[in-house]
Amino acid sequence: xENGNSKIAFISDIVAIYLFFYSVHFYINGHTQVSAxxxxxxxxxxxxxxxISINSKILKLSRQxxxxxxxxxxxxxYSVLTAIIIFLVAYFGDFRHNDKLLxxxxxxxxxxxSIYRMIYILLxxxxxxxxxxxxxxxxxxxxxVAERVMKQILYAPELGYHLHGFITDNYHHSMPKGYYLGxxxxxxxxxxxxxxxxxxxxxxxRMEKIILDLVAKCEQEGVRFxxxxxxxxxxxxxxxxxxxGEIPLIAIRSEPLNLISNRLIKRTFxxxxxxxLLILLSPLFLVLGxxxxxxxxxxxxxxxxxxxxxxxxxKIYKFRSMKIQDEKDSDTxxxxxxxxxxxxxxxxxxxxxIDELPQLWNVFIGSMSLVGPxxxxxxxxxxxxxxxxxxxxxxxxxxxxxxxxxxxxxxxxTSIKERVEHDLWYLENWCxxxxxxxxxxxxxxxxxxxxxx
Length: 453
Hints:
Elements (H helix, E strand, L loop, with lengths): L5 H24 L6 H19 L12 H26 L2 H35 L5 E6 L3 H12 L5 E7 L19 H7 L4 E4 L6 H14 L2 E4 L12 E5 L2 E5 L8 H21 L1 H14 L5 E7 L5 E7 L7 H6 L11 H9 L6 H7 L3 E3 L6 H10 L12 E3 L1 H4 L8 H14 L2 H13 L9
Helix pairs in contact: 1-4, 2-3, 3-4, 8-12
């Protein structure tokens, strides 16, 4: 069930969901006919699961999939599906009368889809690790890049590759001698006399003539080949290939939010949720405003310039949680634990993240998103960009009220480097489902409240 077979995973999920719904219906109601409303509900479930699946990684099963991650993602997916179903049934029918039918069916479906994913991952790892369908690889090259490729193949047999050996004209003692097959002049002989499935060329790109010659020989012998670019160290995880006319271009990182369709999905969700919450939480805003005004001198709201998407400044809004101070101090002094500037009600608001709620207005007007890297003050942006080379890359996406770094505990007076790494991971791996996951963790994960002061 590798990348191309996600359709099989989706069909299996849908069959399981429908089968358990029918089984539970049969157990509770006997052979009574399924109503038209139930058929429409099943159609809505199928459509909902389709959108949940394409906006998450629950269909992307491979030997390298983290079991705990896929189970957690499934849990989030089924939680979203359950919320959708409860809303539909409560709005168009009677949820109380059908609660067992719906909840038991979803529970059994979740258990089944979790089990068959675990079985697939563990079984495929075991089979491949023990030699099943492993590809025989001939490695060409003897430098640092070739050494990295060799270690990856030797130390991770579950990837499905077996190293036949390597050839190079500049053998170095750091390379395992047991796999050394000779110079490049032996290439044709080895390919013709051994079952070589693929050739990996790990030569510096400055050796263009040698690489082109090797490519021509691979084509002549009809063997698949791959070229490892010697600038792979600057490519973070997934290179993106595009074209400029007929000229191929390689981007060193993927940016899903570069696509207009993805930005439209994210913006629509931001507008809908922020508006809904602003309306629902307006009584809480009124109560907090009164408490803030009564317990300390100064305005109810605090606003400050922050650096957001594309390095543009905007005003961020929060409930005031600190005593009135000079603007120079508030813009340049980092908040620390037991900070004496924090008011009595401010400490509670900061620990519970309630002080961030006015940023829903920032989300509604478009200067922020619900999820994204936390925006920082210009003073610290300039400071951190000198200390962390990729710091300003996080500004390629819109700032958020919460983010991947925050739900993993990297907030407050913690490692800025780790925070940036998490922000960049979010930038490169965004999907709508990831935003839902982060919002869930913001509400229910303990890590999201660590170092909140």
